[in-house]
Amino acid sequence: MSMNYEELEQLFYANEIEECIKEGERLLVEQPTDLDTLFLMAVAHHDLAYREGHEETFTSIQAYVIPYLQRILAIEPNNNKALYNILNYTLSNEYVLWQIGRPQKHITTDNRDEFVSYAKRLIDQSESAVYGFDFLVKIYESLGENELLLDTIDQGIAYFRKEFIDNRDLLDKNVSYFWLKKIYVLDYSKLSSGAELVKLIAEQIERYVSSNEQSYLDLAEIAYENQAIDLSLKIMMKLIEGDNTATYIQEGLVKWYHRFEGLINQSYSNPDVLYYQLIIERNYANLLGKEDDFYFKHAGALMKSNPKDYASFHFAGTYLYEQGDCLQAIDLLENANKLQPNACSWRRMVESIFLAHQMISTSIPTFPDKPRDLYNEAVNIANFINELNVADETKLEFRMIELALYQQSYDAFHRYFDKAEFESDTLGDRHNMAMCCNNYAITLAAFSRYAESAEIAQEGLQYSEFPELHHTLVDSLMKGEDYEGANVAIHNFFGVYNEDMVYYYNYIQHRASQIVVHDKLGLSEDIKAEAEELLFEIYGHYNDNPDISDYDFRDFEYAKNLVEGVLYNLYAEEPQEVRLAYYADLAKRFPDEANPQYNLMQIHNEAKNYKEVNKTARLYMENKRSFLLNDFDKAKTIYMIVKSHFLLQQYREGVAMFEEYNQFVGLALEPTEYSLWLSYGIQLQDKLNNRSLVDQYVDQFQAIYDQEGWSYDELSEEVYLAKAHAQYQAGDLKEAHKTLNYVLAFDDHSALAKEYKNSWKKPGLFSKFF
User: Which domain of life is it from (predicted)?
Assistant: First the structure.
């Protein structure tokens, strides 16, 4: 009994292709019109031969692939899959054989009409028309039928302009692809004059896009051969905006540098040519055989001879900026912006001003730059911010610049795609716009504009699918507490990606966010079990991977904190002994984790078990990665340790830690918390008879109360009693009683104050010896 199609498919995907073919051909004897099996046999024969090389593939296509696909088309003449593949396999194989210098033809003058008809059938199917035109062009190219080729190219371009009128990416890419073929045909066949070629290039070059960087060199050469120097320069200016990583492209750029140099010496003048020369000197000094600072010296000379030239000021300022000479760079970059507003010059000027004067520009111009350039400058300012070692307030001011640049880029992208503004940009496609949306959304979220952030991230996903956009969207929805929206976004993410498709630490964040959403929306039958399952998986991952990088650990910690937060809320109303048992068990099972120790510290503090408070607080700080321990949490934990030392009568240990961290805690805590910290420091210093330090800290304590306008209270009473006691211990009975009188002047004073007042007498002459 023959196998069915599903079994054949399993053999194919298991790479048992010979067996698949054997069984498939047996099945076709019984079911000769089974289209799925016919197609699978064509593919299987191709893939089997492909292992052996391109010439073997040619033979197999002739012997098996074409006949099997022809059998399908005999049954269904317009079968889309068969039409596409019969053309794709044959033309692709022909092209590869031509590339390796062993040309053979599947499509000849004898069978051309048959294959032309296949391409035309695809053109008649709207979903495949683009492929149909492409195949038809390639057939005529292969056969050297130039008039039909040019006619088909024009038909294709007309179709693209109508079909993709609302999609600039597809319009530019498809038109450019066919238009370049037309230029090449007209050039080598001499069917058009040089003047006509130049006119064609000039008309289309602003909308030309191509990842084939060689094509720009070819177009520039055609223009040059026909004395259209300005057009050549325009083409080369587009080329320098690409990747330009290939050696032969860099050599081409340098060739044109020398060519322009000769033309300049012959009085050729164009503002863009100076920019071209300087950027080549800056980026390819080694290929030019020049020193790295040659472009700076050249720019300096041009500033004198061409004082209204933007490029010379821009590049001279750039050199000084990169050398760290910010003071000198500022004026040059400012002049560059006056001559020609430019986001790059302006951004470098802003950074230079800050580095030189610690000042941040609050006036952000509207730039005429194309969308991708604005996006790149926003990324550059973001990188600058990340490297700054300054206060958060300063970083936030810089982030306002970052936000403005992303917004300008976003707006420019909309003008690019919706209103066809700006020249076409190969790298500034919809994916680049989606990246802009992602970064713009992240920056909006930094200003707590979560609804706007989510909206922009959602828009980005319409343009390009990549995991980080999902992450930004979910993060914004979660922080904005839009749990219904987050539930949909998380579901969409898991509908596209599984754990093997994205980075683990990003993936785990989405799972953690889902736990929070299930908790908030009541979507889980057992949220505790669901949360614990993920939390134990996260804890276990860390046990198995203790060397997670700091970069990854931030995402890892965020996911962990989300789940820990859900469980904390579930246990918040439980009796103290239940919470203690739960977190003690977690700490025992996962001794390297910080969160169980943090919760144990809080629970033991409630129970006034200060020995355990001290222990768990220290373990918390030990387990928590330092770069994730914010100043407030660190200060509060140190406060708990100092407090426990005092209450455990470990005065020397308490004083040592107080003195070590007092300045840090003063900066980290608000006045309410810091005054409490000071009260323990004062009492500790009193226990060690350090009167001078007691007086110093009491003055500091009172200054906070005066500044905040707070009234005398129980905390003040503790502090002043400690002050009085330190004075008494130092033998200054008069000052001690003076301080006690201050305390006793308030209603509801402590009985201890009265006791001190009645019992403190002037020490006897010999009391110090007993």
Answer: Bacteria
**Total structural domains in the chain?**
2
CATH number of the structural domain spanning residue 660: 1.25.40.10
Q: At what angle do helices 483-496 and 467-479 cross, to 10 degrees?
A: 160
Task: Say yes or no to pLDDT of 1 above 70.
Answer: no
Q: What is the dihedral of CA 402, 404, 406, 412, to 10 degrees?
A: -150
Q: What is the pLDDT of residue 764?
A: 40
In a domain, 517, yes or no: no
Domain final position from 629, 653, 673: 629
**Per-residue buried b or exposed e for 197-207, using 16+ beta carbons within 10 Å of the residue's own CB:** bbebbeebbee
Indicate whether 615 and 720 sit together in one domain.
no
Query: From residue 412, how far is each of 152, 203, 455, 624 by CA, in Å?
Result: 35, 23, 18, 44
pLDDT band at 767 (very low <50, low <70, confident <90, very high): very low
Residue 169 domain flag: no
Angle (CA) 185 187 192, round 5°: 95
φ, ψ for residue 601 (rounded to 5)? -60, -45
For residues 512 and 76, what is the distance between their CA atoms, to the nearest angstrom?
51
Domain boundary among 605, 629, 653: 629
Q: Which stretches within 419-503 are classed as H helix?
A: 430-446, 450-463, 467-479, 483-496
Within-domain flag for 581: yes
Among 403-412, 475-484, 544-553, which stretch is predicted with the lowest mean pLDDT? 544-553
Q: Do residue 652 and residue 726 come from a single domain? A: yes
Query: Quick one: what percent of the chain has pLDDT higher than 70?
Result: 99
DSSP class per residue in 303-321: HHH-TT-HHHHHHHHHHHH
Mean pLDDT confidence for 555-577: 94
What amino acid is encoded at 476 in this protein? S
User: Within this chain, do residues 719 and 742 fall inside the same structural domain, yes or no?
Assistant: yes
**Pair 681, 726 in one domain:** yes
Residue 614: domain span: 574-629
Same domain, 643 and 608: no
Q: Considering the domain boundaries, does residue 77 fall inside one?
A: no
Same domain, 657 and 768: yes
Burial state string for 300-324 with b = 16 or more CB within 10 A and e = fewer than 16: eebbeeeeebbbbbbbbbbbbbeee
Q: Residue 392: what pLDDT?
A: 83
Instruction: Give the pLDDT mean for 289-302.
Output: 96
**Cα dihedral 513, 517, 523, 529 in deg (nearest 10):** 50
Q: What is the mean pLDDT of residues 302-317?
A: 94
Q: Sign of dihedral through CA atoms 307, 313, 315, 321?
A: positive
Are 616 and 646 found together in one domain? Answer: no
